[in-house]
């Protein structure tokens, strides 16, 4: 890859890093995993850099990150509970919680009570600011599923403003 | 209890934390390893060997397509007719010409190409050449600025790239010619260039800054750009077979191939390029004049090439090299 292309990637990666790193932390609740996931997302983006539109690079990296986390969870489940789907609560399968950040970030602790899908939907909708339709497209699920999943997730996160919830999930 | 607004604030709260930046060196290394792994899986050991040579790094696109080369028209899986978009381009773009049953060639637009990562090659790195060998670079519509083409054409090609050739999940190509619309991106010339300072081999080691190697250079504005380099680890090595490289050309209005070869030493006086139909073309030979101590040769062939025969000044055959069969773009880099 040429020097200019590398320079463009470096600029993109540096700018995207805080968001990728933070979203990975919200999804995993673990700083080390978050670091690795964000790095994986950027490495795969770099591997495809010639084919990734610069304007869509963050979306591309975000998709890689979300999918890489799904793969990780799937692998863990196969290792820990076999092939059967025995629920998707991260608390059942996740790594030991990061006590330091757990105390500091109450929201991350609450996120751990969500299922994997609820957590993904909340992060994509309210961290990355995607519309419900975009979340549905990104995760390959029905818009109605996004709506109901989001409602459950927000309830667990104790999001209670009726008007705002209506605005977000009540349509 | 919190509102959605507060939730979003809390979700972003960590954004402001002072985090160490990304380890760019490690990320790029992982990305390169992933790209190489894909190429290796695609082309067997050859791709790894080619990349390890440090010459073709940055030339082979992610999908294995060499940059700057139009697709080969003879591929049996190619379409047999122009696409609707290609037909319209043929009708409405001045200078457009049909060059195969499914491809339309557009002239080089006035507006320049987008920067696609090609390295600029300063004159001081060009040891010999550049020599006009009749080769040209071809690329796709979206490799240029949108203003270079009518909206219907640019957006039509982009739509095909985004929704037919690629996907949201895996990304999509830019500058593709797969829909049968090819843009002439100007001449590419043969030269012997010294490695640019930023280049390294696969182990991250610097290349010999004094040793020049054959490469094809394009032109962009007032400067030369690195298009592609040549050779496996064996290229131009003593006792090794000659190696052949090819690039498609449509200058005559139909598909032809410029073949470029190189072999060790300077004993070669003539090279005969023999087609599968039995016709032959006398190649131009540069023995020691382009690459010090080595022989380079080139010639344009209309049909498929069967073999290259090198002879010394007395007419003795030095090597009778049959074109290696290949089945994919990476494998076909070196014949």
Outline the fold blueprint:
The complex is a heterodimer of chains A (171) and B (335).
Chain A: H1 3-28, H2 31-47, H3 57-81, H4 90-93, H5 99-104, H6 106-111, H7 116-127, H8 132-139, H9 143-156, H10 162-169
Helix pairs in contact in A: 1-2, 1-3, 2-3, 7-9, 8-9
Chain B: H1 4-11, H2 24-43, H3 45-52, H4 84-92, E1 97-98, E2 104-106, E3 120-121, E4 126-131, E5 136-139, H5 151-165, E6 181-187, E7 189-193, E8 213-220, E9 223-229, E10 243-249, E11 256-264, E12 270-275, E13 280-282, E14 284-287, E15 294-301, E16 305-311, E17 317-322
Helix pairs in contact in B: 2-3
Largest interface: A-B, 52 and 49 residues
Could you list the spans of chain B in which at least 5 consecutive residues all have pLDDT below 50? Answer: 36-76
- How widely separated are the two ends of chain A? 47 Å
- CATH-defined fold name of the domain at 1-86 in chain A: Rna Polymerase Sigma Factor, Chain: A
**Structure annotation, total helices of chain A:** 10
Helix content percent band of chain A = over 70%
Mean pLDDT of chain B: 77
Largest sheet of chain A: none
Strand content bin of chain B: 25-35%
Mean pLDDT of chain A: 75
What's the number of domains of chain B?
1
Q: What structural class results from the helix and strand content of chain B?
A: alpha+beta
Q: In CATH terms, what is the architecture of the domain at 1-86 in chain A?
A: Orthogonal Bundle
Subunit organisation of the chains:
heterodimer
**Unreliable segments of chain A (pLDDT under 50, ≥5 consecutive)?**
78-100, 161-171
Structural features, described:
The complex is a heterodimer of chains A (171) and B (335). By secondary structure, chain A is mainly alpha-helical. Chain A has a domain at 1-86: Rna Polymerase Sigma Factor, Chain: A. Chain A is 74% helix and 0% strand. Chain A is globular. The N and C termini of chain A lie far apart (47 Å). Mean pLDDT of chain A is 75; it is low at 78-100 and 161-171. Chain B has 335 residues and is of the alpha+beta class. Chain B has one domain (52-333). Chain B contains five helices and 17 strands. In chain B, the strands form four sheets. Chain B has a five-stranded antiparallel sheet, with no helix packed on it. In chain B, helix 2 packs across helix 3. Classes of the chains: A mainly alpha (171), B alpha+beta (335).
């Amino acid at each position: 890859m040429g020097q200019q292309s590398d320079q463009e990637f470096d600029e993109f990666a540096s700018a995207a890093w805080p968001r990728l790193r933070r979203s990975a932390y919200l999804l995993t609740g673990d700083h080390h995993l978050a670091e690795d996931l964000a790095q994986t997302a950027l490495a795969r983006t770099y591997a495809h850099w010639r084919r990734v539109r610069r304007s869509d690079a963050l979306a591309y990296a975000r998709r890689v990150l979300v999918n890489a986390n799904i793969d990780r969870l799937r692998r863990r489940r196969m290792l820990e509970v076999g092939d059967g789907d025995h629920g998707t609560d991260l608390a059942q399968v996740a790594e030991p919680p990061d006590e330091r950040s757990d105390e500091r970030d109450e929201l991350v602790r609450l996120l751990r009570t969500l299922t994997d899908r609820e957590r993904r939907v909340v992060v994509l909708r309210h961290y990355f600011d995607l519309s419900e339709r975009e979340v549905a497209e990104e995760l390959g699920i029905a818009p109605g599923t996004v709506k109901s999943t989001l409602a459950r997730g927000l309830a667990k996160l104790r999001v209670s403003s009726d008007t705002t919830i209506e605005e977000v999930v009540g349509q | 209890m919190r509102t959605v607004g507060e939730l979003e604030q809390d979700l972003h709260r960590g954004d402001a934390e002072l985090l160490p930046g990304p380890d760019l060196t490690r990320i790029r290394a992982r990305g390169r390893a992933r790209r190489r792994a894909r190429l290796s899986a695609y082309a067997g050991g050859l791709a790894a060997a080619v990349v390890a040579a440090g010459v073709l790094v940055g030339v082979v696109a992610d999908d294995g397509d060499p940059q700057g080369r139009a697709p080969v028209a003879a591929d049996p899986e190619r379409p047999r007719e122009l696409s609707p978009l290609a037909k319209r381009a043929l009708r409405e773009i001045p200078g457009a010409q049909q060059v195969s049953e499914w491809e339309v060639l557009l002239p080089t637009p006035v507006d320049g190409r987008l920067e696609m990562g090609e390295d600029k090659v300063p004159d001081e790195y060009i040891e010999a050449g550049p020599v006009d060998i009749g080769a040209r670079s071809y690329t796709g519509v979206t490799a240029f600025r949108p203003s270079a083409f009518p909206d219907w054409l640019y957006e039509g090609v982009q739509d095909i790239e985004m929704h037919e050739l690629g996907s949201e999940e895996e990304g999509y190509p830019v500058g593709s010619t797969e829909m049968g619309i090819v843009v002439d991106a100007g001449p590419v010339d043969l030269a012997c260039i010294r490695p640019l300072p930023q280049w390294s081999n696969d182990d991250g080691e610097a290349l010999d800054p004094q040793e020049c190697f054959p490469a094809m250079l394009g032109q962009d504005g007032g400067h030369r750009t690195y298009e592609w380099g040549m050779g496996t680890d064996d290229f131009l090595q003593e006792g090794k077979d000659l190696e052949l490289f090819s690039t498609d050309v449509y200058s005559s209005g139909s598909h032809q191939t410029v073949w470029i070869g190189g072999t060790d030493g300077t004993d070669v006086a003539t090279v005969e390029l023999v087609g599968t139909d039995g016709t032959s073309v006398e190649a131009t030979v540069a023995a020691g004049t382009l690459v010090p101590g080595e022989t380079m040769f080139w010639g344009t062939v209309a049909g498929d090439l069967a073999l290259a025969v090198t002879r010394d000044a007395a007419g003795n055959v030095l090597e009778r090299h049959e074109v290696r069969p290949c089945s994919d773009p990476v494998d076909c880099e070196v014949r």
